[in-house]
Design goal:
InterPro entries: Gln-synt_C, Gln_synt_N, Gln_synth/guanido_kin_cat_dom, Gln_synth_cat_dom, GS_Type-3, GSIII_N. The protein is built from 22 helices and 18 strands. It has 698 residues and is α+β, with helices and mostly antiparallel strands. β4 and β5 form a beta hairpin. The chain starts with 7 loop residues before the first helix and ends with a helix. The structure holds adenosine-5'-diphosphate and magnesium ion.
Length: 698
């Protein structure tokens, strides 16, 4: 029976102060001015802000808002907000609702408790937030949310949005230069577009509540493999269970009201794992909306007595969660620059962007790798369920043929005409054949790239800042060279051929999970393999990397130092919490449970012994438990001393290294013992829900 439905077109964006609302409510002249500001063609002035603020407030109050907040994305990776009410006393004991232009434009949250990596001296705790007019304000929970950038008194960025906006400017500027060379005189800007496919797990709230590890760390620190895992491959795209389906419907409603274009939903590979993908939009909006999506996923789950896990690896032994970051460049009038196009000239332009991206990925593979480096994502990359930690590009067979033919100056296979740049057209690439390779970290999928290494919990700003900036750099080099050429086509061809030759080592169309690839990539091709977060992060400060970010004015060197420090500290803190939780669960939950069961076995043993019955079985079980329990106990002691050692190291890099090499390593070996115990100890003795209960309970 069909359910009663609602009008999606009416619901969509109903809580958003979007362009339609602005147009309907703002005086015409103000609306026009504001559009200019939103498109980056004018500065926001106070008189305009006054009108916008008051209109925004009236709209928000009509929709039940009592407060407003400057919403920002500090380096914690999640969003932050401080709420102020609109009330303003008028002197006779009553209040009116007020919101000024100043309050819209600029906020001054106490910033002392946000990570700044030494950027703000403690006496200067002030941070500022500034309205980002390119992202719409919206209402959530009776509060008007104003998307803002967050920066320090002396102007350094303290957030993820500011550098993202700067990187978008950088790539726009350089891409426009290339477009002009191809005779495009109409595009006013180039927009980095992003669609982030979000994976997540759902677990039952009551089951979740019994696991300290899930509560404190977002992942299970213990758990033997369930009897059934994902081996039957019966979950991927499978029928969605009713409880999950109800959740997804509710989630869509919340997202649509907020103007988040949730489009696709399906079951993922692992049991209890699902995905939600939005329609792509500008990178800045995609980043804001992905934050909202993650927040809503968690909130709506609770309303359905479930918990949404966004951790990259909630369960060992089953697939973890990623967030494919689909990325392309588009003109302001909607031409996708990564669409190969139909005419020879469009094809040539496409190849120019493509080759610039190939060069960017090869030269800055380390930046791409470190942009997705977190303690959580370390469990995925290189674990044969997600792409390897080695960054390479997948082009697909057809496109690869074209690239090869271009270099060799030969036919693109017999079936295609000889390919001459700017003269002949590219063969058509069927979109679906380019999407087969799921093992590549960076795959061309017909008209966009899909960066697959991004972790599910990550703020997508980081990887997109890197992509935009490194592509801006290569486009700038190309533009510099091509602008001075007398014969454009000849110069272009030479440039593309030379660049492909120099950087083809980063192209790999084979199986990224194959051990032979790791060997070939590192030993023959010389591609970097940065296995862990601790290996990757310090490369942020490599000379070439500092150069590219400072040159394009995305980060200052000081900001880069501070960010490296924050991210390394974040790694250490994460492992520290996991280690403490591991030790506590092992000591206070697992050992007592093991002893209770052991006592039960020994009781039976004794009574059998007294009765003169053979007790070999009990003896062997008790002995096994006893030796494992002893081993667990000594692992706990080992872990405790590793934690103490790591906590005592003041150098942030050395501390992170110790957390990785010693604390994390000991956690792993402790877990192995505990998981073995789980398989022996009687079910009703085990102190917390098992993987079976967690994965098959929703
Ligand atoms: P695929 O089948 O290759 O995964 P989809 O059409 O399902 O492709 O798209 C996956 C994600 O990529 C969606 O979020 C979609 O909006 C996004 N996407 C599509 N085109 C672009 C583009 N030009 N730029 C950025 N993201 C895009
Ligand atoms: Mg995809």
């Amino acid at each position: 029976m069909a359910e009663k439905t609602y009008d999606v077109t009416e619901l969509f964006g109903s809580d958003v102060f979007n362009e339609a609302v602005m147009k309907a409510r703002l005086p015409k002249a103000i609306f026009k001015e504001l559009m200019k500001v939103m498109h980056g063609n004018a500065e926001l002035t106070l008189p305009i802000a006054e009108v916008v603020a008051s209109t925004m407030k009236d709209w928000a109050v009509e929709k039940g808002a009592t407060h407003y907040t400057h919403w920002f994305q500090p380096m914690t990776g999640i969003t932050a907000e401080k709420h102020d009410s609109f009330i303003s006393p008028v002197g006779d004991g009553t209040v009116i609702m007020e919101f000024s232009g100043k309050e819209l434009i600029k906020g001054e949250p106490d910033a002392s408790s946000f990570p700044s990596g030494g950027l703000r001296a403690t006496f200067e705790a002030r941070g500022y937030t500034a309205w980002d007019p390119t992202s719409y304000a919206f209402i959530k929970d009776n509060t008007l949310y104003i998307p803002t950038a967050f920066f320090s008194y002396s102007g350094e960025a303290l957030d993820k949005k500011t550098p993202l906006l700067k990187s978008m400017d950088a790539v726009s500027k350089q891409a426009l230069r290339i477009l002009r060379l191809f005779g495009n005189t109409t595009a006013k800007s180039v927009v980095a577009t992003v669609g982030a496919e979000q994976e997540y797990f759902l677990v039952d709230k009551k089951t979740y509540d019994k696991r300290k590890d899930l509560i404190f760390t977002g992942r299970t620190l213990f758990g033997a493999a369930p009897v059934k895992g994902q081996e039957l491959e019966d979950h991927y795209f499978g029928v969605i269970k009713q409880r999950v389906s109800d959740y997804m419907k509710d989630l869509d409603k919340h997202l649509w009201a907020l103007g988040v274009s949730s489009k696709t939903k399906h079951n993922e590979v692992a049991p209890a794992q699902h995905e939600c993908a939005p329609i792509f939009e500008s990178a800045n909006l995609a980043a804001d909306h992905n934050q909202l999506m993650m927040e809503m996923m968690k909130k709506v789950a609770l309303e359905h007595n479930m918990v949404c896990l966004l951790h990259e690896k909630p369960f060992a032994g089953v697939n973890g969660s990623g967030k494919h970051d689909n990325w392309a460049l588009s003109t302001d009038d909607g031409q996708n620059l990564l669409n190969p196009g139909d005419s020879p000239m469009e094809n040539a332009q496409f190849l120019t962007f493509l080759v610039a991206i190939i060069k960017a990925v090869d030269e800055y593979a380390d930046l791409l790798r470190l942009s997705v480096a977190t303690a959580g994502n370390d469990h995925r990359l290189g674990a044969n369920e997600a792409p390897p930690a080695i960054i390479s590009i997948f082009l697909g067979e057809e496109l690869n043929d074209v690239i090869n033919a271009l270099v060799a100056g030969t036919n693109v296979e017999a079936k295609h005409a000889q390919f001459d740049i700017g003269v002949t057209s590219l063969p058509k690439f069927p979109k679906d054949t380019t999407d087969r390779n799921r093992t590549s970290p960076f795959a061309f999928t017909g008209n966009k790239f899909e960066f697959r290494s991004v972790g599910s919990s990550l703020n997508i700003s980081g990887p997109n800042i890197v992509l935009n900036t490194i592509v801006a750099e290569e486009l700038e080099q190309f533009a510099d060279e091509l602008e001075k050429a007398d014969d454009f086509k000849k110069a272009l061809k030479e440039l593309l051929v030379k660049t492909i030759k120099e950087h083809s080592r980063v192209i790999f169309n084979g199986n990224g999970y194959d051990a032979a690839w790791v060997k070939e990539a590192t030993e023959v091709r010389g591609l970097p393999e940065l296995k862990s977060t601790v290996d990757a992060l310090p490369h942020f400060l490599d000379e070439k990397n500092v150069k590219v970010f400072t040159k394009h004015k995305v980060f200052t060197e000081v900001e880069m130092h501070s960010r490296t420090e924050i991210l390394l500290e974040n790694y250490s803190k994460t492992i520290n919490i996991e280690a403490l939780t591991t030790a506590e669960m092992a000591t206070k939950e697992i050992l007592p449970a093991v002893m209770a069961y052991e006592k039960q076995v020994c009781d039976v043993l004794l009574s059998k012994k007294n009765a003169g019955v053979a007790y070999n079985l009990e003896q062997s079980i008790a002995n096994k438990i006893d030796s494992l329990a002893e081993s667990l106990n000594s692992k706990i002691a080992e872990l405790d001393s590793a934690i103490v050692k790591a906590q005592g190291i003041s150098d942030v890099y050395e501390a992170a290294k110790c957390y990785h090499d010693e604390v994390f390593a000991t956690m792993q070996s402790l877990r192995a013992v505990a998981d073995e115990l789980e398989t022996i100890v009687g079910e009703k003795y085990w102190p917390f829900p098992t993987y079976e209960e967690l994965l098959f309970n929703v």
